[in-house]
Amino acid sequence: MSTPAEAPHDNPPLHEDRLDYTPTARSVTLARRRAARLVTAWGHPQRAGEVALLVSELATNALIHGSLRGRLFRVHLTVTGGAIRIEVSDPRGERLPGLREAGQDECYGRGLVLVDAVADRWGVEPRTVGKTVFAEIALQARPLGVSRQASVRTTTTRRPRV
After folding, report:
1. Which long-range contacts (CB under 8 A, 24 or more apart) does 37-42 make?
2. What's the CA angle centered on 121, arms 24 and 46, to 5 degrees?
3. Are 123 and 134 a contacting pair, CB within 8 Å?
4. Edge to edge, what strands does the sheet with 154-155 contain?
């Protein structure tokens, strides 16, 4: 597993929001809507859909795989001059996410594939209790003709693909 990534000192947060949610399906909807609204208010409406998708997938994973009775999960959004960072923390540090191929008849198993396709960088950071799964979207413009898939992507999880 990688060491926790920290924001560079020369790139301080311009906007930040942190809120704890109860581990219910309704919380995923609330977190997604809040994130899209905040990113739009912070001046990045063109990124609101991507942020909403990432929050939805990470929060759903926290709900399904990382929740414990009576424990909250946290969604933390940060905007710097160079990126939007989405962090979702949950109390189950022993259950680490990993990419896998879902079968055509499976209803679940595609969340991190979507995160990997949309985010420029994502990974897992350990916490004293639990873990934080993060995803980042770069705010710098890509050169013309360079798609998201062709750009350099960093995944910092060290779990094998299953």
Report:
1. 38/77, 39/77, 39/79, 39/84, 42/14, 42/15, 42/79
2. 75
3. yes
4. 15-21, 73-79, 83-90, 131-138, 121-126, 154-155
Q: Is the dihedral of CA 85, 155, 126, 132 positive or negative?
A: positive
Q: Which residues contact 147 (CB under 8 A, 6 or more apart)?
A: none
pTM across the whole model: 0.78
Model confidence pLDDT, tens digit, residues 135-150:
999 997 655 555 454 3
- CA-CA distance, 112 to 105, in Å (whole number)? 17
Q: What share of the chain is helix, strand, coil (3-state, %, to 5)?
A: 30, 25, 50
Confidence of residue 40 (pLDDT cuts 50, 70, 90): very high
3-state secondary structure 72-121: CEEEEEEECCCEEEEEEEECCCCCCCCCCCCCCCCCCCCHHHHHHHHCCE
